[in-house]
Specification:
By secondary structure, the protein is α+β, with helices and mostly antiparallel strands. The chain has a single domain, classed as 2-Layer Sandwich (Alpha-Beta Plaits). Helix content is 46%, strand content 24%. It has a four-stranded antiparallel beta sheet. It is flat and about 60 Å long. The relative contact order is 0.25. GO terms for molecular function: oxidoreductase activity. This is EthD domain-containing protein. It holds the Pfam family EthD.
Length: 136
């Protein structure tokens, strides 16, 4: 399974609450409409109020305890071909313009970082390992 992971920051002048509200009520719907071959689409929003817990497991000298983004987005695709089809759709000049105009309303486009990953599922692997152990 292929997963696109993206981090983004809100644009100046937009509060965290405004950012999240706009993403969930407007931008998310655009993605679902145009990228209809995605398998799953999730957004995770940092919880600054829980920073002291993170500090136990990370370097407390990291700026803002590592909160370098306002949302972490994950989009799953069945395979690389499905990912490519989605990028072909999003690359259409008219569709791209719709997204650029929408994104300009709530996020800092220069802050967008995208990574394409091949996902492994730990629970599935643990189950297989347990079955092998039980069979021996």
């Amino acid at each position: 399974m292929i997963k696109l992971v993206s981090t983004m920051k809100r644009r100046d002048g937009v509060t965290r609450d405004e950012f999240r509200f706009y993403y969930e009520t407007t931008h998310r719907l655009l993605v679902k409409y145009f990228a209809h071959n995605i398998m799953d689409y999730r957004r995770s929003y940092p919880r600054p109020d829980l920073a002291e817990i993170v500090g136990m497991y990370s370097d407390p000298n990291t700026p803002e305890h590592g909160r370098s983004f306002d949302v972490l987005t994950e989009i799953w695709f069945e395979d690389a071909e499905a990912l490519l089809r989605t990028f072909e759709i999003m690359g259409d000049p008219e569709i791209r313009k719709i997204f650029e105009e929408d994104e300009a309303r709530f996020l800092d486009r220069a802050s967008i970082h995208v990574t394409i990953c091949e996902e492994e599922t730990a629970c599935e692997q643990l189950g297989e390992a347990t079955n092998r152990l039980m069979a021996s």
